[in-house]
Every structure is written in C-alpha cells, then in structure tokens.
Design brief:
The complex is a heterodimer of chains A (about 80) and B (about 210).
Chain A: H1 3-14, H2 20-32, H3 34-53, H4 60-76
Chain B: H1 4-12, H2 16-38, H3 41-58, H4 68-87, H5 116-119, H6 122-133, H7 137-148, H8 153-160, H9 164-191
Helix pairs in contact in B: 1-2, 2-3, 2-4, 3-4, 4-8, 6-9, 7-9, 8-9
Classes of the chains: A mainly alpha (about 80), B mainly alpha (about 210).
The structure holds zinc ion (ZN).
The site of zinc ion (ZN) has 6 residues of chain A, from α1 and α3.
Chain lengths: ~80, ~210
C-alpha cells in the first residue's frame, strides 16, 4: 500500500470498516511509514478533542425556560 | 428509561415523564446542531422549540418507521437550512465545495503528546471552534453528527437526505481538514515558548529541554 492509498482509506481504517486484507495492508504500511502514522494519530486526536469539547448543553437559564414552555405546550395538547 | 415504542406510546398519552425524557435526550443535541449551522442562540432555541412542537402535533400519526431522534434531527436540520436560505437568499446555500481530490496533509508534526496545558487550553478550545466554523456547512454537519454526537453513517445519511457514501466522503474530508488546521496550530504552539517564561539574557538555557 502507498501513502495515497492509506490516506484514502484512513477514515475507513479508523472506523474499522476495512476488510481483513486491507486492514492488514494498512497496518503494514503504518508500521513502516512515520508520516502516515502521524496523520493517523493526529486525526484520531482531532476527533477525540472535538468529542471532548463538543457536548455543550443549552445554557442553563435558556434550557429551563425552554423546558417549561414545551412542557406546557405538551400537556395542553391532552385531547 | 423508555424503549422507542414505549416512549411514543407514553408521549401520546401525554405522560410528563415521557416529555422530560424526550427533552433530556434530544434538546441539547438538536440545539448543538442548529447552533453550528446558525451561530445564534436565539435562532437555535427557536429551532428546538419548533421541532418539538411539530413532533407533538405529529405524535398521533407517528409511524415509528423513523426513530424519534432521527426525525427530530431531520426536522431541525431542514428548519435550520430554511432559515439560512431566508437569511441569505442569493448566496449558494451549502457552500458545497467541489468534491475533487482529497485534502493532502501538509503538516506532519505529531502533537498528540503535547502537554495538557496546550491541548486543553482556552486558546486551543477557541481554535477548535474556529477550525470547525471554517468547514463547508455540509462537512461540518456530517462531522458533528458522526464524530461528536456519535450517530451511525446510515442515520446521518437519513437526517441529511444524502447517500451513505456521500456521508463517508464528507466525513473523511472534514476530518482531514480539521486535522490540518489543528496540526498547524498545535505544531506552532509546540515550537514557541510560552509567554512570560522567557529566560533573562545572560542566563544559560537548560540543555536538552525541547519546548
Ligand atoms: Zn505512508
């Protein structure tokens, strides 16, 4: 496998969507190619950082108000 | 805890606990998606409100073919896009990039082991936001749904009304673009000394310390 192919398959590799054969080829390439190893690691780290940061909730005051409004609307709809 | 069908049934009966559960499960997710597209807290709140109200109205017809979550995401996504369209009627909406060629990595610095003071700094957090805001909207949405919210490829495709293979391609591009941006930022941070820690002139630099 060449670097360009590794790059093409990178997300599938991360998501474990490659078949056995391609996975092995990718692993072999990664074992010998420092650059691709770095791209893989930093891509995974990128995803990790966003996952850590990305789950912010609605600001508390806003959330509470929204809950009340929607709850009222929900309960008023009783047939 | 409710199963999907129990939840729909309890919502139809206007069970307050079912509402709480629905709200706790989905309101923040929908808000984040709308926020990422619209950038306005008021508008994002409006999207959450409208999406839930529409669900309440549809409850009796809800067939259970789509999952509640998928349905809510889909309504919220489409409503956000409608709002964008109204806001900027002339500009091409999803600023679709041409899908030719993958972004080629330029920075090959391994910053994974950077100290937490760099990785978890307030500045880094802002850089993450800046980088994701620069992505084309479609890529941004795919990245958020797949990598941040953890939805499946199939569910993401259903929410955005695009094919599974389009989701995969766009996610791959989004990841590589973000990796590039963050690599540029973190490698820069790793190569510059933190402010305020400069050695006074005349003092020997400690040897073997690589900042
Ligand atoms: Zn390589």
């Amino acid at each position: 496998m060449k670097c360009e192919e590794l790059l093409t398959y990178l997300s599938d590799y991360i998501d474990q969507n490659l078949d056995e054969e391609l996975t092995e080829e990718a692993q072999n390439h990664l074992a010998t190619c420092q650059n691709c190893r770095v791209v893989l690691d930093t891509t995974q780290q990128t995803i990790f950082l966003y996952r850590k940061q990305g789950t912010r909730n609605i600001p508390a005051g806003r959330r509470q108000r929204l809950f009340k409004q929607l709850e009222t609307a929900f309960l008023e709809k009783i047939a | 805890m409710f199963t999907e069908s129990e939840l729909i049934e309890a919502l139809r009966q206007r069970n307050p606990e079912a509402f709480s559960y629905l709200f706790e499960t989905y309101s923040d997710k929908i808000y984040r998606l709308a926020m990422s597209l619209l950038g306005s807290e008021d508008e994002a709140e409006g999207i959450v409100q409208d999406s839930f109200l529409r669900l309440f109205e549809k409850l009796d017809q809800f067939e259970g073919r789509a999952k509640l979550g998928t349905w809510l995401y889909r309504v919220a996504y489409n409503a956000s896009i409608d709002l964008l369209r109204k806001r900027r009627p002339v500009v091409p909406l999803l600023d679709e990039p041409d899908d030719e060629g993958l972004p080629v990595p330029v920075v090959y610095v391994d910053w994974c082991q950077a100290p937490e003071t760099i990785l978890a700094s307030e500045e880094a957090s802002l850089e993450l936001e800046r980088a994701i805001a620069q992505l084309p909207k479609r890529y941004r949405t795919v990245f958020i749904l797949r990598d941040i919210e953890g939805l499946s490829t199939a569910e993401t495709a259903e929410i955005l009304s695009i094919s599974v293979s389009a989701v995969k391609v766009q996610l791959h591009r989004a990841r590589l673009m973000l990796r590039e941006q963050l690599s540029a930022y973190f490698s820069e941070r790793l190569s510059t000394k933190p402010k305020g820690l400069a050695q006074p002139k005349g003092l020997a630099q400690p040897k073997g310390v690589n900042l």
